[in-house]
């Protein structure tokens, strides 16, 4: 069992989401600490113009418990079903955490 910490981009409230950087950890605490260090200093990728950043594009953090599935052409991360997911939003130099229900696969 591993915890994956990721920093991602969300477009609008319900728009598409993509991960820009990920890190795997042996504990939930370690994964959350990584987000708390990285998210406040995270920058938007250069391919997102400044005008678009003010148009509902947000950086956020996420910590989920899961495992890597091998035996496929490309190994794939799968969140453990039933495990809660932590979401983090930037609040200046700090991170605001909220625990969310398990995500559907």
Secondary-structure element order, as H and E? EEHHEEEE
- List the total number of helices: 2
Low-confidence stretches: none
Report how far the terminal alpha carbons are from each other: 17 Å
- Given helix and strand content, the structural type is mainly beta
Output mean pLDDT.
85
Main sheet, how many strands, which sense, barrel? 6 strands, antiparallel
What percent of residues are in strands?
Answer: over 45%
Number of strands: 6
What is the molecular shape? globular
- The share of residues in helices is 10-25%
Q: Give the domain tally.
A: 1
Radius of gyration: 14 Å
Any chance you could write out the topology, listing elements then pairs?
Elements: E1 2-11, E2 17-25, H1 28-38, H2 50-53, E3 57-69, E4 76-79, E5 85-91, E6 94-100
Antiparallel strand pairs: 1-2, 1-3, 3-4, 3-5, 5-6
Characterization of the model:
By secondary structure, the protein is mainly beta. It has one domain (2-100). Helices cover 14% and strands 48% of the residues. The chain has helices at residues 28-38, 50-53; strands at residues 2-11, 17-25, 57-69, 76-79, 85-91, 94-100. Strands 1, 2, 3, 4, 5 and 6 form a six-stranded antiparallel sheet that branches. A hairpin with a 5-residue loop joins β1 and β2. It is globular and about 40 Å long. The model has no long low-confidence stretch (mean pLDDT 85).
